Amino acid sequence: MEVTVNTTIESNFSNFIRNLNTTTSNGSAFDENVDMAIRSALIVILFITMVSLGCTMEISKIKNYLFKPKGVAIAVGAQYGIMPLTAFCFAKLLQLNDMESISVLICGCCPGGNLSNIFSLALQGDMNLSIVMTTCSTLLALGMMPLLLYLYSQGFSNLVEHVPFTHITFALIMILVPCGIGMLINYRVPKYSKIITQVGLTVLLISCGVIGVLAGISNGGKIFTVLSPQLIATAALMPLTGFICGYILSTLFRMNAPCRRTISMEVGCQNIQLCTTILKVAYPAEQIGQLFFFPVIYIVFQIVEALILIFLFRCHQRLRPSKNETTEYTAVERAAQGI
Question: Would you state the pLDDT for residue 214?
């Protein structure tokens, strides 16, 4: 009797372990499939958004700014001077670990994103400068981004070993090809450019939410370990610092008001889809839990802060008397003084 009971218990325990291993294996396979789906979706989304960005680029406008490069030089210098330095400073000041520092540096060294074009339009900025600046920063990223990552990673011990230079170069080449396709579409069949641009921006905004949900499912909640106070502070302060410093720098170079607002938006807005793709493709799934969600947090703060600035600008425009009203008031005041 005693032998039978022990055998039964041992058999039940073995079945339990076998079922547990099967469940774990199935869960692991599910995570791997979701992870692969996210990687593939990110590449497709990056391709679509960069084609839409290319559709906003006009060769004639680029030529005009190349003959008068002052504005573009200041803007691109601000893009690759302010944001990488900002990322480096926050990583140091907030004492981020190696992997967190890499994610912040990659985000800071990315070129400008196409959301900046929308924000510049809402702020009544110089749209030609905005589009040309996004174009130039994207083209220069192939050399500037690896160089800046190499230079700033020297400030951390053994951080260079973890920087995925090969994947970054591949991702940058991957964004130049669809940009070229978009420019060709805009040159050959410009009537389709607006439609493609709208589709690309819609895909970008929707994909941020969808991929965030998929990433949460894939990592079983582990992804939310990225929500440390240090990283939240970095994600909140980086775009705001870019907006402010871009405006101050362009003011020091005596740019006009529309150009100052444009450069401010271009500097603060990063190509988040490129950053997300690099982080997801370059690192294994067990490491991405603490890295992958940072760009999503960044873009949320980037959009919210830009919308606040747009709201304040619109309020200022409404409260400030128009030129006609000011002229009429001055004429009436002078007439009254003459009487």
Answer: 59
